[in-house]
Amino acid sequence: MPDDPTLSQLTDEVRSFVSARDWGRFHSPRNLAMALSVEAAELLELFLWSTDDGPQPPRAERAPKVADEAADVLMCLLNLCDRADIDLAAALRSKLARAEGKYPVERVRGKALKYDEYEDWVPPDEG
Question: Cα–Cα distance between 93 and 104 in angstroms, integer?
């Protein structure tokens, strides 16, 4: 296995893992989207009751679990994209391009507002 695998290689590994266990029949996009939400919640739970200026996660024994839960999230996401025929890299690039339009650097740098909360925001032409 390469040290820096591509998304395609990781997807192949997930596909092989699932196939060997005959789990594919349970992995509809709908079920995988729900599983992704559950795994993301398990990751979030590790940070529950953290304070902004406190340790992250708040208990040292949770730290190793963060990587495991992040891996579960990625595994579910890659599996979902595989089943839904989504090119995740292309989808990310497309989303970044749209986000660059909504959040130009010169307007938003260092600010934590949503695109439509800026004073000079103009709704897109609906026509």
Answer: 16
Q: Where are the domains of the chain?
A: 1-86, 88-127
Q: Tokens for 59, please give them.
A: 């208990």
Overall CATH class of domain 1-86: mainly alpha
Q: In angstroms, rounded to a whole number, what is the distance separating the alpha carbons of residues 74 and 17?
A: 14
Nearby residues of 46 by Cβ (< 8 Å), 6 or more positions away: 57, 62, 65, 66, 69
pLDDT in tens, 32-77: 999 999 999 999 999 999 898 999 999 999 999 999 999 999 999 9
Greatest CA span in the chain, whole angstroms?
A: 55
The pTM score is 0.85
- The sign one gets for the Cα dihedral 42, 46, 49, 52 is negative
